Amino acid sequence: MTETPDHTPLDDVQGIALGVLMCGLGVQLLTHLGLITGQTAGLALVVSYLTGWSFGAVFFVVNLPFYVLAWRRLGRTFTIKSLVSVSLLSISTALLPEGLQIAYLQPVLGTVLQGAFVGLGLIILFRHGGSLGGVGVVALLIQDTTGFKAGYVQLIFDAVLFSVAALLFPISIVALSLLGAIVLNLIIAVNHRRDRYVAT
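RE: above sequence
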């Protein structure tokens, strides 16, 4: 992945900030409902729920091995933008609850909203040459090299993750979480296409 001349540094700053904010809001809805999600964020949430450790800290550590792959295969700029995005999301998930308290959220609506928020946030990050690391890095690499859609790669990973989660959490939680992951990944699969968006 290469940086495009259509995006100025200021464009990228606002794009990454907006993408992280959207994802942060989605994570807040997710944790309010006690749900999990897919990709490395889902893995970090499972670890966070089981251990009581901070999601932001676990998420940051889980992503560290993927930066080596990103640096070697997708370039320095992509890796730095992804590292910045992950760091900002780790910080925002700690700060957002201080300014946004949710009194009531209908579970199905909240699930769909969080999937939409995170899906849109990831698309914004992708289009500005970054990601939230982890499976997103692998998914983008596969899409760039084979044409197999990044959203479908993430959906396969999520299917494995949710199969494991079904052994650890109530089936109602897993079912709602799976709905959110499907919404998220379908948004990416349908909307993140190079033939429709040429600025990536």
